[in-house]
């Protein structure tokens, strides 16, 4: 099996590459532009493996995509490359429009060019998995779950750009017959997560005795999935999923943000005792503009049709994650020097009067 993974130097992409190379023994080509979020160190476990190759390239570069795909001759393309952080998309959306929409279009066209030249058997076996987010569905109230049929209603520039890319992927299947499958997953957490997102930021700030910024009242709900469970799901979806279909991915682990932050503090307090409980570092800060209240995934289709199950609960996964950050400073220290955790994603009206966060308590 020959698989191209775009965005393979990112958080989820690197977990997927490790799974495909080390657990499945597939031949894998990682394509990644190594933006601020891309990190070759995340691929250290596979860098010397004969069944892994890396190409630094931008998915918006059609010529580079044509060459990489033709040279590698994949059976599958798993497309994860994206700008992924909501707060950054609020500060500036241009890179999100470029990579998530124009880049996905460019990759779909390159894949279509390659696929249309394949022999009949290879052509019918070929698959393109477009990896997306549950944020395309917008925000839930207190009740209900996102299903595959939930109408799209994105709130942030990030989720709007992902929604656009999902529609492109579906259109390339309906119009050109490209064998596309789409997956929409809930919030991931785990090792190698860039320390701008809630969970890694909270772990590192709490380890360093810095303030822990919680947006608004901390009552927004996210449905957390351990990243290795997502990686396995993606492999199962591209292997067994039906062409043209969407599969939602989630582990039934809804938590309010404040409870996530408190849990991380409790785990750290258990592992390294301090003078005072780390939850004293929590600081409620100005809310995110357009902040979605609640996400929750119904993964029944993936579970019943394709036989996937999450292995980790939130409590087992978060303990593994905290331990990993404690033991792997070599990975996060250079990133922390590049991005110090300062607040992103406030509009001008909200910046005035907003406390500076991430500073020493
Ligand atoms: P990430 O930001 O950690 O990694 C993105 C990777 O894409 C980086 O390695 C970056 O260098 C690369 N990249 C960015 N622009 C590129 C370009 N123009 N060309 C080539 N490479 C480029 O993101 P992630 O959290 O690993 O997310 C991966 C995918 O999964 C994204 O498509 C995201 O929308 C989706 N997703 C993420 C989550 C989550 O909780 N993180 C949940 C559901 C879906
Ligand atoms: P994040 O990790 O940015 O993921 P997403 O916006 O894609 O869900 O944020 C998760 C939740 O945590 C979201 O409700 C915003 C909130 N949040 C904070 O309260 N404080 C923070 O410092 C960050 C980064 C996020």
TrEMBL record:
It catalyses: dTDP-alpha-D-glucose = dTDP-4-dehydro-6-deoxy-alpha-D-glucose + H2O. The keyword Membrane does not apply. Pfam families: GDP_Man_Dehyd. Residues 4-321 form the NAD(P)-binding domain. The keyword Isomerase does not apply. InterPro entries: dTDP_Gluc_deHydtase, NAD(P)-bd_dom, NAD(P)-bd_dom_sf. Keywords: Lyase, NAD. Its EC number is 4.2.1.46. GO terms for molecular function: dTDP-glucose 4,6-dehydratase activity. GO terms for biological process: nucleotide-sugar metabolic process. It is an enzyme of class 4 (lyase). Its cofactor is NAD(+). Belongs to the NAD(P)-dependent epimerase/dehydratase family. dTDP-glucose dehydratase subfamily. This is dTDP-glucose 4,6-dehydratase. It comes from Sphingomonas populi.
């Amino acid at each position: 099996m020959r698989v191209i993974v775009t965005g393979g130097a990112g958080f989820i992409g690197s977990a997927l590459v490790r799974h495909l190379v080390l657990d499945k023994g597939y031949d894998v080509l990682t394509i990644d532009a190594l933006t601020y979020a891309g990190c070759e160190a995340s691929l250290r476990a596979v860098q010397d493996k004969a069944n892994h190759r890396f190409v630094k390239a931008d998915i918006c570069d059609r010529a580079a995509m044509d060459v990489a795909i033709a040279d590698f001759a994949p059976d599958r393309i798993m497309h994860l490359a994206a700008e992924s952080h909501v707060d950054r998309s609020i500060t500036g959306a241009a890179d999100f429009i470029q990579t998530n929409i124009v880049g996905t279009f460019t990759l779909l066209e390159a894949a279509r060019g390659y696929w249309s030249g394949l022999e009949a058997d290879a052509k019918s076996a070929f698959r393109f998995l477009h990896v997306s987010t549950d944020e395309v569905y917008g925000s839930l109230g207190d009740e209900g779950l996102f299903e595959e049929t939930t109408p799209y209603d994105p709130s942030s520039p990030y989720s709007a750009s992902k929604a656009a890319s999902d529609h492109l992927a579906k259109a390339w299947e309906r119009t050109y017959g490209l064998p596309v499958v789409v997956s929409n997953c809930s919030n991931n957490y785990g090792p190698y997560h860039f320390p701008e997102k809630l969970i890694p930021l909270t772990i590192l700030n709490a380890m360093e005795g810095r303030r822990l910024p919680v947006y608004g009242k901390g009552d927004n709900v996210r449905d957390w999935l351990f990243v290795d469970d997502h990686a396995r799901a993606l492999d199962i979806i591209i292997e067994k999923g039906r062409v043209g279909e969407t599969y939602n991915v989630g582990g039934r682990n809804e938590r309010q943000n404040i409870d996530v932050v408190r849990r991380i503090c409790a785990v750290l307090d258990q592992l390294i005792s301090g003078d005072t409980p780390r939850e004293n570092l929590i600081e409620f800060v100005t809310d995110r503009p357009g902040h979605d209240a609640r996400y929750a995934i119904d993964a029944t289709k993936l579970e019943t049709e394709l036989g996937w199950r999450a292995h980790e609960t939130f409590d087992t996964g978060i303990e593994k994650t905290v331990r990993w950050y404690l033991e792997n400073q070599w990975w996060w220290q250079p990133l922390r020097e590049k991005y110090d955790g300062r607040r992103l994603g406030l509009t001008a009206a909200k910046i005035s009067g907003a406390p500076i966060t991430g500073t020493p308590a």
